[in-house]
Amino acid sequence: MTGPAPVQALTRKAGSPALRIAEAIGLLLDRLAVTVATAAVVVIFFALMAEVVVRYFTSAGLGWPNEVPNLLFPWLIMGGIVAGAQRGAHIAAEALRSMLDTARLRLLLMGINLLVAVSFAVLAWLSLQVIAITKAQVFPMTGLGQAWAYSSLLFGFGGIALAALVNLVRVACAADPRLVHHTETEHMT
Predict the structure, then answer these.
(1) CA–CA gap between residue 85 and residue 120 (Å, rounded)
(2) For 171-186, what is each residue's pLDDT tens digit?
(3) Alpha-carbon gap, residue 54 to 68, rounded angstroms
(4) How would you label 4-30 residue by residue, b for 16+ Cβ within 10 Å and e otherwise?
(5) Which of 75, 74, 82 is nearest to 27 (CA)?
């Protein structure tokens, strides 16, 4: 199975409504992040390809495709970051995790996820100021405001905060918090 697979039922407290809601939000967030990143790559590719084709046949460019990476590359990056945060695909200090018993590890991971959620929620809030400032700045060919590119900060920071809250619930409900981000295939090995 690819992508974030739900941890097997044996590793979670059965029937927790909070966990079911968190899992649904997490799955939606993951799919949204992957869709944003994929769409950004596809649109950037086709815009630049159109520019190349037009330049080849006419010796003149369209102009606007050169602005597309400036608008969409930040969305590509933030989509990947949010997907990674949601999937737990980030650097972790495994040595510390292995030294703690289950109860202490649960508390540590819950504290870390709470700190991440609050920190990135604040950053998301502050990104609204950046978006407001950049509304007046526009790309010359497309006429789109640079706020479109900077809106990726709101998506990324808000997405990371939401992923941290989802992970906080997962850790709180897990029988073993070490298995929160393991996929079904990892359980078999």
Answers:
(1) 12
(2) 998 888 887 875 443 4
(3) 16
(4) beebeeebbeeeeeebeebbebbeebb
(5) 82
Tens-place pLDDT, residues 74-102 = 999 999 999 988 887 766 656 677 788 88
The 10 Å CB-count burial string (b at 16+, else e) for 140-178 is eebeebbbbbbbbbbbbbbbbbbbbbbbbbbbbbbeebb
Helices (H) and strands (E) in the chain, counts: 6, 0
Closest among 3, 151, 2 to 86, alpha carbons compared = 3
Digit-coded pLDDT (tens) for 107-150: 988 999 999 999 999 999 999 999 999 888 888 888 888 888 89
Sign of CA dihedral 165, 93, 175, 30: positive
